[in-house]
Amino acid sequence: MNDVCLAEIRFEELTALEGRVPQLQGLLHFPPVNRDLSLVLADEVAWEKIEGVIWAQQLADMRKLEFVDIYRGKGVAAGKKSLTLTMEFRRAEETLTHEKVDEYQGSDTGCIEEGVWGGVAGLKKISEIRSQ
Prior knowledge:
The protein is α+β, with helices and mostly antiparallel strands. It contains 3 helices and 4 strands, in the order αβαββαβ.
């Protein structure tokens, strides 16, 4: 009996990567500071919009930004959702302080809450969970 393997190749995405040179970085020896953030926003606001705004801040020490969860239900108004994301901050040459990360996080939430990214109103920060 022969094994069968299937694969789906998205050539459009592959050709978009043409000419890029992989960038290698050394291992980081200092621990990260992780922050979770939950936002209540209109149902129609996509994760990609939030992600783009945060990355546009070009925070030198932010290494990761990840979607965690969406909640709709008790405690969240109709037509709204609570979106939770996590950010990882880290420096290659030293350990980050909580105060420095607080500055970064304030920059992100301020930018989102003020609707800088297209006039979408009604955003409200509901919780900031301090570093884990």
